[in-house]
Design goal:
homotrimer; 346 residues; alpha/beta
Chain lengths: 346, 346, 346
């Protein structure tokens, strides 16, 4: 997004926090509701010890917090507290460093690890039917200029599992004012007035970055043309640019027998143009079947971004190393984590 | 759905239920929320008497329940209780016998009667603006491979009237990964990860049954090609297979004067292929108008699945025997009942 | 809508209101929830004074109300109260005089002023992240026979910002039973069974009026063919019919230097048919750019209904007199106000 702050903060001070014996850990932000107003509390310091990372008891008039549970001030203000991370850089309430999610290159290993930890919390929420309300009152717009039902539903499920609401466009390219010649920037300026975060899928490379430069709300890139689809992560280019060693090989059995991850993808017919013969040749060449499974290591996994055609045979599905449906479900948790992080911070 | 249990249960025992003077009635399941966790309580026995079917008072630490109202344990756990039916087979909290709703043949008379009773409760909820929240936190996906706005909106209204949420696809055939060649089974395995129940409309006969065999969440068949549309019930075949006596007749006036129900349907042009002449002949032959009403019995009704063209004239609409708009509204209550039963049980 | 009352009312009387020293101000309606039932309370008289327009204290067993806050009876009934306006004609709880929003001619200056005051309250709600729930439990259907993503999302955002829920059709013309030949009246009779208010966009002039004559729920016209689009207001015809003096001029610079508002619009290519030459001529003739801004008065504004093509250059956007994006946002507040007024009254 274009501006730097998504919500106002209110600093507690004076008698309501304990100044001595505190440990600066980056602050805690929580949202509380009094009547119908939702406000944000930020405590810059707080008594806390390493052996109780998720729970605090403070004297009268002080904060009492516990993990993902509830946090209260003595004066009856009720807060939904977020998990506190002891690492200063990812403490609860710290603003997420990224304002938008546009491309894989934004994420270093530390950030990814921290996001995965949040995603684990999200998995607990979803599996325990915990019906979280942490994004209650937030509105996400899915602005899809080309259809991608799977991606759209995954984001919408993520938002709704956290108590948020959704505005949907399934085919903005054909239906919207884009057909009348409106620029993407103008559209974004209108849609940002209706929502708190925009998930954009566009047919033009670079559209997400352009939208983010205009928007005052966070933009998540759900694919822009042949460009990045960062929530599925275009890994190969990223590895290259980061100097990671890698090699190409045309013998699937040889590779399968040694690697930890077989990441299969759909052969995209549209990339072959009129050379149907080349498509058919490529399509039949690399098929993960029970023979491939047979040479794979016990701990290795088969991944796939889905949808699949016949590049993985269905008799592979039951093998515990077939990870692609788990992978789709994990995509939901990652999206829940990103929505939480962009809207509420760590 | 493929697996047999939609949610885990926790059995109360020891001091929290009264073992003496109890009556086994199949158990009661309720969902309660403590903090952000929703759990399920199942009591296998309970003091209850036939003359107070919807209300109980139990000693300390015991359950107190009332009709569709609230149910509480002394330890402050608050539950939304479901209506208790004294018939052991349909007691509150009993799992609904059907895991999916695929075809008319699943329903015997007893089951239909029990569903209608639940539908009556749903009608009260909808009419009294009671804004039920019994499905709060549940997510329904409407996976429509061909458009059917009326059916889709009816299910979505039913879900939202009960406090649930919806993920929508209006035209999955054209827009989704199905266009890329993904099998229905793969799509279901993905969508079931995003939702708690799937309403499927598909262009291929047998698709709903195939989906139900794969899914771990309940499937409701909202039409699959020329196959069943069980929530509108393909009555004729079902009567035949059940050995019910019936006859065909080509004289509308004669039939109308003796029957209790005139169930009119749209003449579907697409069934006639290129024989437009036959279509036009059939179309004009059976029209329910005021003349037909004139010979009908006072208590008889005219039904129609809608949409109608000219097979019922609009001057019939005001007659109290014109039941088709009431019928559409009742379809909403039946859908509310089915969603409630599949997700929460009786 | 066709009938005159959208919800039942319950009159408080006897000891629960103060009969002496009261001022008849049209009554107050509030919605309260006991258990799962939502009811409506209407007090026909109430002690109130002009110098405390938003707050009352009444003796025991009497009403205590405050602005947009909460209102309670001593017997623990909790109500969401609406703002009380001291003008008898627009008092809190008074039914909105308009049952549907069909055309600009419905609105006189007094009504518009009163709506703008409500819209200001809506702006506060939206800006303060107040996450209002005043329309919780209400269901709005957006029945769009032709796509208009901007208008649809604006209404849906308005509804959700007030806690309401939405049923969506993005392209009812192609997808719905209309394609099978169903009349609009029949469709309305079905959809009104699924929702509490219908936002209709239709391709035929007069469709909204026809729908309103049939419906038992409020209809909002979101555009019907070349007809009215009252929430963007077809101003010129309305001025003429009201006898307001106006003149046409073909010199943009001359007009811009004297007027208070430059209301620019898109040159609609579809209106020119095959005369592309005339379209190109018209298109290039009236462009608001920095030269036009240069002659405009300091207090004047440039408005535009959006989407724009090149009839306003982008370098105008940063000028504080460029009002079109503010205008789009204000459209959201107006829609919030109309939804509130049609469903809850003043």
């Amino acid at each position: 997004m274009a501006s730097s702050s998504a919500f106002s903060t209110w600093t507690l001070n004076g008698s309501s926090v304990v100044p001595e014996a505190t440990k600066n850990f980056g602050g805690i932000i929580c949202h509380y509701q009094t009547g119908c107003f939702k406000e944000t509390v930020r405590c810059l310091s707080m008594r806390v010890s390493a052996d109780m990372p998720h729970s605090w008891e403070l004297p009268n008039d002080k904060l009492v917090a516990s993990g993902l549970g509830r946090l209260s001030l003595k004066n009856k203000v009720q807060c939904s507290a977020l998990e506190v991370d002891m690492k200063p850089s990812y403490s609860v309430g710290n603003k997420f460093q990224l304002e938008d999610v546009i491309e894989a290159q934004q994420f270093d290993r530390n950030t990814l690890s921290a996001i995965f930890e949040v995603a684990l919390e999200m998995e607990k929420i979803e599996k325990n039917s915990a019906r979280s309300q942490i994004l209650k009152g937030y509105l996400m717009a899915t602005l899809f200029y080309e259809p991608s039902t799977r991606t759209r539903l995954s984001f919408e499920s993520a938002m709704k599992r956290l108590g948020g609401e959704v505005l949907t466009t399934e085919n903005a390219r054909e239906f919207s004012s884009a057909a009348k010649g409106e620029t993407l920037e103008d559209t974004i300026r209108t849609i940002e007035g209706y929502s708190d975060i925009i998930v954009l899928r566009h047919f033009e490379s670079g559209a997400a970055r352009k939208a983010a430069a205009t928007a005052s709300v966070p933009i998540i890139n759900a694919g822009d043309g042949p460009g990045q689809h960062p929530t599925q992560n275009d890994i190969k280019d990223h590895l290259t640019s980061s100097g990671v060693e890698w090699e190409e090989c045309s013998d699937l059995m040889e590779v399968a027998s040694t690697c930890d991850v077989v990441y299969q993808t759909r052969i995209q017919r549209e990339r072959f143009g009129e050379r149907v013969d080349l498509y058919e040749e490529a399509r039949g060449k690399y098929i993960v079947d029970r023979d491939v499974l047979g040479v794979m290591q016990k701990h290795a996994v088969v991944m796939h971004p889905l949808p699949r055609l016949d590049e993985i045979t269905v008799d592979v599905d039951m093998d515990p190393r077939a990870a692609y449906f788990r992978q789709a479900k994990n995509g939901l948790y990652i999206r829940m984590a990103l929505l939480k992080l962009l809207l509420l911070g760590w």
